[in-house]
Amino acid sequence: MKGNPESVPRAGNQGLAGCHICEKVAPVSVVYCPRCGSHLHLRKPDSIARTLALVCAAAIMYVPANMLPIMSIRELGVTTESTIVEGLVEFWQARSFPIAIVIFTASILIPLLKICALLWLCAASRGLVPHSAKVLGRVYWITELLGRWSMVDIFVVAILVTMVQLGNYMVVTPGPGALAFAGVVILTMFAATSFDPKLLWDQLEREAADADTETNTASE
Amino acid sequence: MRTRLSILSWPKPKGGPHHAVCHFCDTLHVAEPIPEGSRVNCVCCGATLFQNRPASLVRVTSFSVTALLLMGVVHTAPFISMDAGGMRTVLTLPGAAKALIDDGTPIVGFGVALFTIITPLVLAGGLAYVCGPLMFGRSAPGAMFVTRWMSRTEPWNMIEVFLLGVLVSLLKLGHLAELHFGIGFWAFTALMFCMAAAVAAIDKRELWDRLEVAGGT
């Protein structure tokens, strides 16, 4: 019985929707949740289109986020600009490996994996790639959970800009890369919330129905 | 007698049977009451359907009130100060946001203020406002409205991410200058744990069921 989309009742097929905010189950025909008044939807509206649009925007922003300096350091009149990767290399060369790994994970790996994961999820829910809805459901959950940690680089810039204001000796100012990077993080967070994992199971159900009709026509 | 309502078992709204829909696979379940401290998983995909967290209202209220008090300390006491080149600079949360706004990236500055000051304040304040009266079976005016907004702001609370940012910055600055940890820093660390504990204690279904039973608006 487990994992078989045929054998369990699905709320959507009975016109029932779970409220996104308060989890009350109500018929979708009443439009607004009888308990908390939020708009009821069977599936998140335009889920795939919205997710794709936000992910594409994030992927475009990812380029300037890594190419442009996120901060510039003026030390004794000499200005050096530093991108995310340069900051990372600096930690690595200073042999601070744990912190280098943390920064690599938070600012390079997580945004990249998030963009790939969301594209994969969109493709899977359209049936373009074979998938296990159970595994991808977990992927989605992790994607949603980890997204916030990418903001750490922005906070580091904010803290350095505040603290390193030492007149002629040393001054740190934020660079244009910081804006682009914050954009990537925020856009991928919105993209993750606009994706609806139920679409993965809808696709499985469609595939099972197609297989059924095929076997039926074959037996006739 | 009224004070004991908070430790009474999870009340169920009138009517029924009550249903629960899995967030991931849309499987419809009949939601039976479950004992405290246990959880129910979806029969189809195995994700957690809902759980009954013990003493959730009491824990949420106490941790969020503590968080609010700590926020007062965090924003007034010195956080970290740095002595270098005969000068002293002091870090505060509003100061970090203001420095970005003044130095030409106002959007990022507002983002920092939003994620580290406003969202935690809304979240902790909202939780205390909703769960405090609910412990006595009362619903504060507009409690449902506040709870709705809280569940929207929850993912944007980045207190713990900011603390990681502080640690990374300290490693960058450590060799450069002499750093002093103020009371604000320790209060902030405690604040992080309080916010995490408060959010982890929220029992969404129980909270909404209690709100409905209390007749909230």
Your description of this structure?
The complex is a heterodimer of chains A (220) and B (217). By secondary structure, chain A is mainly alpha-helical. Chain A has two domains: 10-42, no CATH class; 46-198. Helix content of chain A is 58%, strand content 10%. Chain A has helices at 47-67, 84-93, 97-125, 133-146, 152-163, 176-194, 198-219, and strands at 16-18, 25-27, 71-75, 78-82, 170-174. In chain A, helix 1 runs antiparallel to helix 3 (97-125). The longest helix of chain A has 29 residues, at 97-125. Chain A is elongated, with a radius of gyration of 23 Å. Chain B is elongated and about 70 Å long. In chain B, 53% of the residues lie in helices and 12% in strands. In chain B, the strands form three sheets. In chain B, strands 6-5-7 form a three-stranded antiparallel sheet. In chain B, a hairpin with a 6-residue loop joins strand 3 and strand 4 (48-51). Chain B has seven helices and seven strands, in the order E-E-E-E-H-E-E-H-H-H-H-E-H-H. Chain B has helices at 56-76, 93-102, 106-134, 143-153, 159-173, 183-201, 204-213, and strands at residues 19-21, 28-30, 39-41, 48-51, 80-84, 87-91, 178-181.
